[in-house]
Request: fold
Amino acid sequence: MTEAARVLEQLVARGETLAVAESLTGGLVAAELTSVPGASRSFLGSVTAYATPVKRELLGVDGALLAERGAVDPAVALQMAAGVRRLLGADWGAATTGVAGPDPQDGKPVGTVFVAVAGPDGTRNMTALRLNGGRTDIRKESVRNVLVLLSGELGKNASAQDTEQNGGN
Reply:
């Protein structure tokens, strides 16, 4: 089973939805998710926020943060995930931002990537990556990593829900 299929299966089992905000991946996360039959049961849509103004104006990323640190930053990734979740009315938001190359950006070297998720009850998590390879490899690994992060969060969150519902410790 692919990571995309695993994520979608987890979301359907929970009756929850997902929205994605993508920068360096340029729609590849959405493409991976929608390649799975039945994705529309839980995947609402995506925003390709490639340009910094789109991150600020559409997703609500803090303009001062963008001015100070640039778009390739862990806090930006978290705000993108929360912003797309809010914008599309999803239970979960996932985001990618980073430098796929060929040139550095905002003082960050090629291969610097941040993937993030935001979910119900204030759930937020981010992974910082240093990826090797060319532009295509970096983008593909970014897609895989954001889906792995989301799957892990869905699994953790499901365990906590089971414990609460079943009166566990």
Observations:
- The CA atoms of residues 22 and 48 lie 5 Å apart.
- The first helix runs from residue 3 to 14.
